[in-house]
């Protein structure tokens, strides 16, 4: 959640809406793919978060919290944002081998 306690994410928003406004959330959707059993961004891009949670039996509140946390990184100062983004799984260097 954001500092004022209000979420910038609404369950009526589509996956596409969220990704286009908050690119940082892609890592969250990727992390939830395993629980869904398929790529959420590939198969549910035009679905609302509510529809995604219903279709895949996901915990909507937890999903929204994680997405909102990632989305709130956009409001962080640039240095903090770069640090936070560098810790996302998709931005970590892969080990050699």
Structural class by secondary-structure content: mainly alpha
What's the mean pLDDT score? 82
N-to-C terminal Cα separation, in Å? 39 Å
Strand proportion, as a percent range, falls in under 5%
Percent in helix: 40-55%
**Shape verdict:** globular
Low-pLDDT residue intervals, each spanning 5 or more residues:
90-97
Number of DSSP helical runs: 6
Radius of gyration: 14 Å
Number of strands: 0
Q: What is the element string, with H for helices and E for strands?
A: HHHHHH
Summarize the structure in words.
With 97 residues, the chain is an all-alpha fold. The chain is built from 6 helices and no strands. It has helices spanning 15-21, 26-36, 40-43, 49-56, 60-71, 78-86. Helix 2 packs antiparallel against helix 5. The model is unreliable at 90-97 (pLDDT under 50).
Sequence-ordered SSE layout with sheet pairings:
Layout: H1 15-21, H2 26-36, H3 40-43, H4 49-56, H5 60-71, H6 78-86
Helix pairs in contact: 2-5
Describe what is shown at a glance.
By secondary structure, the protein is mainly α.
């Amino acid at each position: 959640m954001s500092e004022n306690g209000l979420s910038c994410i609404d369950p009526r928003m589509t996956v596409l809406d969220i990704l286009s406004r908050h690119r940082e959330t892609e890592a969250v959707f990727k992390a939830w793919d395993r629980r869904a059993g398929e790529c959420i961004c590939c198969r549910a891009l035009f679905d609302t978060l509510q529809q995604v949670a219903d279709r895949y039996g996901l915990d909507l509140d937890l999903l929204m919290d994680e997405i909102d946390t990632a989305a709130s990184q956009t409001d962080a100062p640039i240095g903090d944002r770069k640090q936070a983004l560098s810790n996302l799984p998709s931005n970590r260097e892969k080990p050699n081998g």
